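Open question from group meeting: does this chain pack into something compact, or does most of it stay loose? Before anyone orders reagents, we agreed to write out a predicted structure and look at it together. Recording both the input and the output here so the notebook holds the full record.
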Amino acid sequence: MASHHDHNQNETRRETVLVLEAIERLSQKLETKMSQITDFAAQQQVDLTSIATTLNNIVTGIAALDVLISNFQNSPGTLSTADQAALDGVQASVKGLVTQAAAISVTPPQVAASAAAAKA
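Structure tokens returned:
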């Protein structure tokens, strides 16, 4: 009877070792995934900082162009052909910048449930 008991204990130990090894593999896989997520998040932050800088430059550029337009419009007398062409060019630039800024997508991409499940 003692040998049957010993056999059961040995089998239980082997099963425990297998379960612990499986847990260790899952833990390592989870660490790898978390590291990948952290790396991705860091890169996204760099990208977002760059985008914010670009947007600030656009806002600054539009404000500067608005000043030039205002200066042209408030200048005394009639605009020369060259001044009118410059004003038209500045106004077109402002409209172009506003259009570009409005076209920036601010909606984060959505991960489909099936894609998220496949990555898990």
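Observations to bring back to the group:
DSSP finds three helices and no strands in the chain.
The mean pLDDT is 81.
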